[in-house]
Amino acid sequence: PPPGGAWGGGGRAGGVDAGGRRRGGGVYPPRAPPPPVAAAVAPPDRMEVSVANDLAEIARLAGLVEDFVAIHQLPARLAFDLNLCLDEVIGNIVSYGYDDHDHHDIRVVVRRDQDVLVSEITDDGREGNPLGPSAEPEDGEDMVLGGQGVFLVQEFMDRTAYRREGGRNVVTLYKDIAASGSEREEPNRPV
User: Which long-range contacts (CB under 8 A, 24 or more apart) does 152-157 make?
Assistant: First the structure.
């Protein structure tokens, strides 16, 4: 301590009286009020998750997409459309994208970009667009299960894109939020 005792004045404890004045004559400036507490914190406009190259992971991802859509109070139809398309894209990656049976992570990012829901799927599989050309069914022809998934993705999404970047496949799906319904739909419930 300085000569004469404790800090702030001649050995006495405490240096400020009830009026905010320092004993001995000085006045401390008033304290700033604490910052306001946010009433509500907006949920992040982005979800990022890694799924293993295992078809069983698609169900876990579907639940996360449903949660993201619900939290953001988006039309329930978006979750259905996006999950159908993610099922197809990731199913193709898992089934046809790898030459081995080792563990691989597939990165999925879902984000809201103003009025568009953008989903990006990145994998380290063989180079190839899982949304490559597909045959559209002829009028009157029944769609066969398998082989028509790419057509469905193109029908359910407003736009799709593919690129190869840094040794990885990147598929991007775009869905206009307004086109999916103006109000949040509630799930069908038994009457």
Answer: 152/84, 152/85, 152/88, 153/84, 153/85, 153/88, 153/89, 156/81, 156/84, 156/85, 157/81, 157/85
26/23 Cα distance (integer angstroms): 7
The pTM for the full model equals 0.68
Within 10 Å of residue 8's Cβ, how many Cβ atoms?
17
Residue 153's identity, in one-letter code, is: V
Identify whether the C-beta of residue 77 lies closer than 8 Å to the C-beta of residue 181: yes
CA 66/CA 52 separation, integer angstroms: 19
Give pLDDT tens digits for 78-128.
999 999 999 999 999 999 999 999 999 999 999 999 899 999 999 999 998
In three state form, how does the secondary structure of 107-159 look? EEEEEEECCEEEEEEEECCCCCCCCCCCCCCCCCCCCCCCCCHHHHHHHHCCE
Low-confidence ranges of the chain (pLDDT < 50): 1-2, 4-13, 135-137, 140-145, 182-191
Instruction: Report pLDDT for 118.
Output: 97
What the block records as the tokens of 166 is 């840094």
Q: Name every residue whose Cβ is closer than 8 Å to that of residue 21 and which is 6 or more positions away in sequence.
A: 27, 28
